[in-house]
Amino acid sequence: MASKEEIEALIKAKGDEIRQLKAEKSEKDTILAQVALLNELKAKYKETTGEDFGPPPSSSKKKGEAKKTDGAPACGLKVDPRKAAKEARAAKRAAGGVDQATSTSSNSGGNASDAATSNSGSAPSVPSLESAKYGNLPMVQSLGMTDRVWGRIDGLSPSRAGQRVLLRGRLHTSRAVGKGVFLLLRQGIATVQAVVYQGPGVDKGMVKFAGAVPRESVIDLVGTLTEPREPVESATARLVEVQVDELYVVSAAENVLPFQLEDASRPEASEDPEMPSVGMDNRLNYRWIDTRTAANQAIFRIQHGVSQLFREFLSERGFVEIHTPKLLGGASESGSSVFTLTYFDQSGCLAQSPQLYKQMACACGGFEKVFEVGPVFRAEKSFTHRHLCEFTGLDLEMAIHEHYYEVLELFSDLFIYIFDNLATRFAAELQAVNKQHPFEPLQFCRPSLRLSFAEGVALLREAGYDASEMEDLDTEKEKALGRIVKEKYKTDFYMMDRYPLSVRPFYTMPCPDDPTLSNSFDMFIRGEEIVSGAQRIHDVELLGERIDAMGVPQETLRTYMDAFRHGALPHGGGGIGLERVVMLYLGLKNIRKTSLFPRDPKRLAP
């Protein structure tokens, strides 16, 4: 290991090299690279000596030098003045002072300096971080770690009044009032009011700086938690606020955003149609901004909840999570709606379902009960409110002993578990969605309502619809049946079984009492399908007959059929569309709202 003296010599030499490069007007990238090496040497010096590199502090103060404090509070941003000033000056010399708090002195506290601005958004000129408790932080580049404790807004409560807190979040709004500025800090869907008011420890410059920080910038706040005189109705943390005495910009947003969050957050049923609104395409083009709204944060947390609860429920019942291939040599279900690709010297496609592989794992591979959460690809040019070319499938497959109703009963219990836990564990998120997208809470029965396909057709006919027991229902009839079922049975969630065999895939088991029907089922929320499932054929001879009857070449399914030649358990299962479940549960009108970066026939970016 190099000695202290050797490292000092290296640092001095590197400093001379940087000055020479600057004098020669070398490329900016070259200078920045050497500055980075200089910082590494300084870090090595501190690791070796336990001290920051630099001459010892002067025992006497220069006139006008800011008084140094004895130390930052335990939760504060412990900025080393000499190191911050040196790094800021080096970075400014190399890159024109962009995104750095600047200083004009060498070893001691500096005077106020100009040109401390961010290239991505405007921020006022500020004093160096030596003499001010506010400004633009140097770029976070993982130079080290501290013992600071970072707080969460949703963990703030009146019982903590008087405590010091350190928070990082986005600046949601700011409002100047007299000698102060009211800030609303946001973390996810949680917000808290922070007050920067001129007085002891907070000068006029800090108030001015706070008022000029662009909305959506990432900022750090340090202050004292207090109880406001009146609840803060604009914040989720209504019973507390932060009296700020330190404020730093971590990453400044541009002053002009593609759209304002308040416009993107406006309730759908706004009383004033003249107010600005944000169209779907604009939202999706800048999805990373759109997802910052409270409703969208909540939607995707609820989506996370659905998949989490799906995993919880099945794992507790002995299911094994599997991961099936998405690169296939042929269509998953011998359909034509697949994305084809070249797989080295072969033709391939993206999986439109894990169907065949989950059967092979469950019935033939010895796992008996399996599930998967993974992407599904459908090359269908469907420009509807409920179709995507890529979505997330929640699939399960299980061995059965006597009847495929074992699968239906499990699905019923699964969805009741999901619905119950969403209501209790995601209440705040549901409230956030309801505020912008009002919806009626889902009604469902215990156990779930089960109708036969023939009974569903009969209900439609009674209502005047032309429906056949041998043809599948189109979207219009499914929605109509949903309204009829809701009125008659008081439920938004139900299932139908015994569909015509002709409208189901080749691997579906025929009904034993009527070969024109099948041991299959669909499940619905608010009149739209969310699950399709069935008992599968586990006899290889019957499987071959059904493949031939559907006109599918057996050679394309050779490995799948071979799996059933070595003994297969009777089994069944189904697949759930995650985005569609969330859309219908929340009563949303477009599935693109529940897909983080949706893929439809016209959208492949972002």
UniProtKB/TrEMBL annotation:
Compositional bias of kind Basic and acidic residues: 79-90
Coiled-coil regions listed in the entry: none
Predominant localisation class: cytoplasm
Gene3D superfamilies per record: Bira Bifunctional Protein, Domain 2, Nucleic acid-binding proteins, S15/NS1, RNA-binding
Domain of life: Eukaryota
Region (Disordered): 46-129
Name of the molecule in the record: aspartate--tRNA ligase
